[in-house]
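TL;DR need structure tokens for one chain.
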Amino acid sequence: MIRALYTSSSGMQAQQLNLDAVANNLANVNTAGFKRTRVDFQDLLYQTYRAPGTAGAQGTVIPTGIQVGHGTRPVATQRIFSQGDFQQTENPLDLVIEGNGFFQVLRPDGTTAYSRAGAFKKDGTGRVVTSDGYPLQPGITIPADATAVTIASDGTVSVTVAGQSSAQQVGTLQLARFTNPAGLLSVGRSLFTPTQASGDAVVANPGAEGMGTLGQGFLEQSNVKVVEEMVAMITTQRAYEANAKAIQTADEMLGMSNNLRR
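>> reply
TL;DR here they are.
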């Protein structure tokens, strides 16, 4: 009977983490480029009283056996990299990746991080940077006298300068992709860093080597679906309540055993 208490408590702890993941998804429903997470669970060890397939009486074989589990545990938080909806912004520095790939961002410590959020700006020197001021890689600088910025689907960045009729190229954006993007480490600020699980970054121009293409004047919205998350929240709540009820039932049965009289 004590086993039921610990088994159900493991279920309650697992559902608490599940609710945390759902809450984070809902909190980021309006975060550009956000990818929702899903918690994967795994059952714990089993206590085997009689193993299936062992020999029985008179040469028979036990068909099923007796095993009792010890609950569950969260084993992974799987990030789902499905494409989010596109929102037209008409901002020339807003970019969306149609397909696979990540933008490359240079962090203050000199390392490169990766992002799906394409809401870029210009800093005081004309560099294209993120909302936190991290420069886009390869570095792109927009001249101060530029009157128009054009970013082609293949990453070519061109500007029209005042007094000139023809556009001039100022750089080319490149994207990165990974063998296992789910193995990337989330570091906040809509950024990811590679790990051994994700593999090394493969860098190429948009539209080449399996990379997606760029769309100017659009942003990729979060791929969180509110209705699905609300259903997941209800399911999580009911599972938590069921495990709490199992603990209450086990406690009541223990109380009955303690109150037995001769």
